[in-house]
Design brief:
Helix content is about 90%, strand content about 0%. With about 675 residues, it is mostly helical. Among the domains are: about 1-125, Intraflagellar transport protein 81, N-terminal domain (Actin-binding Protein, T-fimbrin, domain 1, Orthogonal Bundle); about 170-200; about 495-590. The model is unreliable at about 670-675 (pLDDT under 50).
């Protein structure tokens, strides 16, 4: 509670209240002054409540404050039964009621100002239903609601603009800077025009530059049109591919399906769609409408704080708990356990839930299938762009597999044929080896016969001559064909060169002229560039000098502004002190004792008297304590000695009991030995 009062006093001493309270003076305020202070705080939040409570009845004051606190969503501490006590305390100006209200208001003044401002336009007037039967009243009520919605939209736009950070000062600054740049550019254009007028053929050069700029803009527009047409062509190709895929699927469905299966599919789709239209979608629409209604209702109300939200959540939890208890009581009272209808109801609810779940699963599966189809189309288009061939469908893939199977059988047949040919090749190779051996034997016999006859090497020489002649004839044929080909190629190249020369002759003439023009324009461009650089350097030096001057002036202006604000603050402080001195003098010399009590001197005098009385009481108490200190210490010593004496007696008693127990045990042991 002390921290709460400290916070209230600090806030009231600041702007815009400036009450100059301390803890003692605030705590000594009377009920009427507390009510006036609460009215002043409410008047700061809503200017309509800045009134003097002495000019109105207490009931009117309490009603006015309660209405505004209700609009500001103030929740009194305690339960609902304490509301009457809260109203009574507000009427009488009770401190336990006024202090929490002041603390709550001063904690969130800016937020409550905004809420009070919005409440003037958003608190809806409740018109009775019998009055709304009149067309004029109904039209006015409709216009009133439309204006309220328009105000909501405008307020949202206003808040967004405030958050965006744009201000009129910045916009004006930007406009002035743009106007200065515009003036500078206009002056620069005028200077350049004057310089260009002295150059020969400047009109022709300007016309050429303008045409060049137009051609560049036209080139950019054509490039943009080309890009757009490419994108349109790509989208058209994708649409065509999707249409072809759909056509193939439809053809496949029509080819492979029967009327009975088609009718069955159509019946299933009709049943599913009718369930969606008659049961699922209306229920969802009703739930959405209710949620939208509640959201609109929430939006129409003023903004809520976190404390309001927590309070609402606690209320919702309490209401839910009460509802559950009532439902359990109703079930225990009206539904007996042996009723057969409960079982059927449970089964029906389970089936309906399963039906809804399956419908949602089917809807999700359809959406997933459509997304997968879109992905397949995208992947097929990407594959078509990369490889140039379409992705196979299911039927085409089956045909491809059948072709592979037939090729596999054909491959196996050919493999068997190759195996047979390989076996035959082995036989032939063996036959060739045998024949070569026989040929070598015959050659040896032939050489032996030639040696006998004296003509050795005759057969070998003849074979070599025949082989060389055959090779020579082949080379002659190849040379003749090569020469013919080369002659034809030379003729074709000469014809192509002649054609290219004839086609490039006018282009070369134009190129020479363009090169000459380019050299002239390049020379002119270099001259203009030199002039531009010199002009830019002069302007840059002027700009830097102006920037330095502006910087100095801005610093001087900032210094003068700070001096002005300092002097203004000092003046305001002195005025406040002077006002306080006048009020103190007025209260001190006033004949009214009530006003004189408000003076600071009187307050401090009263505080000094209270502190002196308190000191006198404390000194008397100290004297009594000093007088009774000796006897009290003596009595405490006697009690400590008595405690030690009693402790010693307890120990002696315990020792005596232990010795008696030991003697008894020894006697019992002796008796046992005698018996044995």
């Amino acid at each position: 509670m002390g921290d709460q009062i400290q916070f209230i006093v600090e806030k009231l001493n600041q702007e815009p209240f400036r009450k100059n309270y301390n803890l003692i003076s605030f705590d000594s305020l009377e009920s009427l002054q507390l009510l006036q202070l609460l009215s002043d705080v409410l008047g700061e939040i809503d200017p309509k409540h800045a009134v003097d409570i002495r000019e109105e009845l207490p009931e009117q004051t309490a009603k006015r404050m309660l209405n505004l606190l209700g609009i500001l969503k103030y929740k009194p501490p305690g339960t609902a039964s304490d509301l009457s006590a809260f109203r009574q305390g507000l009427v009488t100006g009770s401190k336990p009621v006024i202090h929490p209200v002041l603390h709550w208001l001063l904690q969130r003044t800016n937020e409550l100002k905004k809420r009070a401002y919005l409440a003037r336009f958003l608190v809806k007037l409740e018109v009775p239903a019998e009055f709304l039967q009149d067309d004029t009243v109904a039209d006015f009520n409709k216009q009133y609601e439309e204006l309220m919605e328009a105000f909501k939209n405008l307020h949202k736009e206003h808040e967004q603009l405030k958050i965006s950070g744009l201000s009129t000062a910045e916009i004006r600054r930007d406009i002035s800077a743009m106007e200065e740049e515009k003036d500078q550019l206009a002056k620069r254009v005028e200077r350049l025009k004057k310089r260009v007028e002295t150059v020969q053929n400047h009109q022709r050069m300007l016309e050429i530059a303008r045409q060049l700029r137009l051609e560049k803009e036209r080139e950019e527009s054509l490039a943009q049109q080309k890009q757009e047409q490419k994108s349109q062509l790509f989208h058209a190709e994708q649409k065509l591919q999707r249409a072809q895929v759909q056509l193939k699927e439809m053809q496949h469905v029509v080819a492979d399906s029967k009327p009975e299966s088609l009718m069955k599919k159509l019946e299933e789709e009709i049943n599913f769609n009718s369930y969606l239209v008659t049961e699922k979608i209306p229920r969802e629409m009703e739930s959405k409408k209710t949620s939208v209604y509640f959201l609109q209702k929430v939006v129409a109300e003023p903004a809520m704080t976190q404390a309001d939200l927590t309070a609402l959540e606690s209320e919702i939890n309490e209401v839910n708990a009460q509802m559950n208890q009532l439902i359990e009581k109703r079930m225990m009272k009206y539904e007996p356990t042996d009723s057969k209808f409960s079982m059927y109801r449970q089964q029906a609810s389970i089936i309906s839930r399963k039906k809804e779940a399956k419908a949602e699963e089917l809807q999700a599966a359809k959406e997933e299938m459509s997304s997968l189809e879109r992905q397949v189309e995208q992947k097929s288009s990407q594959a078509h762009e990369l490889e140039g061939s379409e992705v196979l469908t299911e039927d085409e893939f089956k045909q491809y597999v059948n072709k592979l199977r037939s090729k596999n059988t054909f491959y196996k047949k050919k493999r068997l044929e190759i195996a047979e040919i390989t076996a035959e090749y082995g036989i032939l190779q063996r036959t060739e080896e045998l024949l070569r051996q026989r040929h070598e034997a015959i050659q040896q016999q032939l050489q032996a016969i030639e040696e006998k006859k004296g003509i050795s090497g005759y057969s070998y020489t003849q074979e070599e001559l025949e082989r060389v002649s055959a090779v020579k004839s082949e080379m002659d044929e190849v040379k003749g064909q090569t020469l013919d080909n080369m002659s034809e190629m030379v003729k074709k190249l000469n014809a192509m060169v002649a054609e290219k020369k004839a086609s490039l002759a006018p282009v070369i003439k134009e190129l020479r002229q363009l090169r000459q023009n380019c050299q002239e324009l390049t020379q002119e461009c270099d001259e203009k560039k030199i002039q531009y650089d010199s002009c830019a350097a002069g302007l840059e030096t002027n700009r830097s000098a102006l920037e330095q001057e502006v910087k100095g002036l801005l610093e001087e202006c900032a210094q003068e502004e700070s001096n002005y604000h300092y002097i203004n603050c000092m003046k305001r402080t002195l005025e406040i002190q002077l006002q306080r001195a006048k009020e103190e003098m007025k209260a001190y010399v006033s004949p009214d004792p009530q006003e004189r009590r408000k003076a600071v001197r009187e307050q401090y005098t009263r505080i000094i008297l209270e502190q002196e009385n308190l000191g006198k009481k404390l000194r008397e108490k100290q004297k009594v304590v000093r007088e009774s200190h000796g006897p009290n210490m003596k009595q405490m010593k006697m009690w400590q000695d008595f405690e030690q004496l009693m402790e010693c007696k307890r120990e002696c008693f315990l020792k005596q009991q232990n010795q008696a127990a030991i003697g008894q045990v020894i006697q019992e042991g002796g008796k046992d030995r005698l018996v044995l």
